[in-house]
Amino acid sequence: MAGRKRKESTSRDESTKGTNGNHSDTIEIKLDDDMFDDCPFSIDISCEPAQGPLPPKSGNSAGDAGQKKRRKGKTPKIIHYLQQSLFQPEGSFKTHTSLDTDYRVEPWDEWTAMNGYNSFIINKTKYCVGCYIYIANEDSMTNAQATKDDLISRPLDYWIGRVLEVRATDVENVFARVAWMYRPGDLSHSKDFDGKWVIGRQPYHGVNEVVCSNHMDVVNVSCVANIASVEHWKPKDLPKGQESQSEEENDLLNGIYWRQALDIRTGELSSLPVVCRCKKPANPDRILVECSNDNCDEWLHYECLKHDALMKVYKRLGKDRPHLENGEGSSNGLEWELDFSDDDEATKYSDEEEGDDTELFRKPRKPGPSSKKFKNSKTPYLGLFDASFIRNRSPNVWKIKDLRNGIIGGVRSWKQEVECLCCSRVIT
């Protein structure tokens, strides 16, 4: 994974289907003083559609077939084996239909010669094939076993993987083949469903969100810190903050979860459902507002609604006109147009200035001769107006606050109805 200083491996694969037959039940690990023990194995991933055979059973080395071919004077064929994915993302990829991947551990003969196990035990904690694990690194801690407080306070300091296979020569040499769960900040040169490059955390990524992948590595289990709890968040689940959000759904979002997948063979991210007029994915940690019009029912980003409301206020009042009790005001001839076209620059959810949560999916423009004045401004109202969303009433309203200095007359705060960005009806 990008930026990881672990045992180098050419691995690029993922997901999980357990190990194959003839595996012993459990091996208990004996730890030494070196947390980052060497791992002599790497993984080669085929970029072709998955069509290889299932791996041989424990103790049946694929090298036997190669020896037979060599005795006949033929060059042995390098075989990649199928890893069937347990990750089933709701979205799709453009190139491949699933995360099923052909892989090969090198050196293969040494890998398959080891005994296979269904689980391993470290400090009385049992780790089974298919479970998620925290893997310690230089950023997380300096000893092999994480404390409970460490994992609660900063769980994403650790790498997270899902155990696919366990093999060992003895209690001091135990290895796990894992599929990586990417932290959004570790994404590098990936592509979204529209073919746009994605580097690092995106506005739609939640605080505790990870991205499943078919990127595999073999790790020495001496690096394993603890069991990790990772849930699958599905698009039908409501975002945090909705009134109908259940306690169980809130617990899911308060823990680590995934909803998107990375195909390491192509760098493609699976598609996500889009909402609102901006047609961007929802961030599970942020509020969505549902239009009350039965013919619309669109989910809208809170940040998009706020931006729209403040742009309307700015258009009406500009920098020097007061808001009168009857709601009248003048725009001084300013005519702002909200542009919802795809714009590589308009990718942030929140403005970094003053911690404002203003949506930046829209690009304001002022046509005409004096357009130069606001040519590069996406949020001209910053520092002039602010808005708070009042939900527990019908209809919902914005409480607008005038932050400008030196305004003579008018009122400094007022309420304004919330309008749907798609159907323009008032949201009740």
Structural commentary:
- Pfam families: BAH (PF01426).
- InterPro entries: BAH_dom, BAH_sf, Znf_FYVE_PHD, Znf_RING/FYVE/PHD.
- The protein is mainly β and 428 residues long.
- Among the domains are: 27-45 and 79-238 and 248-273, Roll (SH3 type barrels); 287-319 and 378-427, no CATH class.
- 11% of the residues lie in helices and 29% in strands.
- The chain contains 5 helices and 25 strands.
- The strands form 7 sheets. Strands 1, 5, 6, 7, 8, 9, 12, 13, 14, 15 and 16 form an 11-stranded mixed beta sheet that branches. The chain has a 3-stranded antiparallel beta sheet with strand order 2-4-3.
- A hairpin with an 8-residue loop joins strand 19 and strand 20.
- The two termini are 47 Å apart.
- The model is unreliable at 2-21, 60-71, 240-245 and 330-376 (pLDDT under 50).
